Amino acid sequence: MEGGKACAPSGVFAHLEMLEMQSHEAAVKQEEMEQQEEKLARLKATVQELRLQRDDLQAKVDLQQKGQLGKEGVVLPPAQPSARAVLEWKIKSLKAMLRLFYLTGISGKLTKKGVCFCISTAYEGTYLDSYYLDLLTEPEVQIYRHSVPIFIPLEEIAKKYLQTDIRRFLSVLSDHLNAYVQRRYQADQLQKHFSDQIEGKLQRNSLCDLLVFNYNVSRKSKTFLFKVRLLYGDLCCSLPTEAVVSCASDAPASVAEMAAAHSGLFRRVALHKAFRSFGSA
């Protein structure tokens, strides 16, 4: 017992020394952290200052390249950009646009006189057709040659967007082409898979913005003839804006109601899918 009491003070002193050492180490670490934070703050301030200097120098370089800055650093009246500068700007813009359109079904490559675009069309993952557009970039952007169908309003779209917004021009043209091939695809699918229900010949024009056909519907062991007229007023859309479905005037009321229901369905669902739903109803 007495030996234990004699050793107690030395144990306390050792514990105090350990605490002092830990406190000292913590203080050193805290000081190092504060120094690092101060150093980081100084570095951030230096970086910000260098960025400002860089931006200022870049602005001066840009002005010098455009011939707008005198030797003394005084800004001169704006000068007209050279033809070469305009051409380089156009090429740079076209390259950026090619990267932008890469994943939108529009691809292209630079040519000696401009750029050639390829607009690919598809419907629900099914590749359909590709159309090509060769543009010249000087003295102004113009269409050199193309494979766009004659019934697509290419000239109208070009007149509206080509000189002012080439991205918009390509986007609108792509919408027209995709909508056209999708309407055509639906009509083809209807004739291919539901010819047994179609009475006579399906009538359509080149743009496939007007479809007229008749089809038979069976109800309670009787067959009724429905007459259809689909008008696609929005040429950038693959669904009709107007769908008229009619039946004989002496048909039962339930058949007339069915015709009205089919009319609404044609405006909401792709043509071949609508017929598929008739079979499962």
UniProtKB/TrEMBL annotation:
InterPro entries for the chain: CENP-O (IPR018464)
Which spans of this chain does the record mark as coiled coil?
Answer: 16-67
Under Pfam families, the record lists: CENP-O
Does Coiled coil appear among the keywords?
yes
Compartment list: Chromosome, Centromere; Nucleus
Which keywords does this chain's UniProt record carry? Centromere, Chromosome, Coiled coil, Nucleus
Residue ranges spanning the membrane: these are none
Q: What's one GO-annotated cellular component?
A: Mis6-Sim4 complex
Q: Which family does it belong to?
A: Belongs to the CENP-O/MCM21 family.
Could you identify this protein by its name? Answer: Centromere protein O
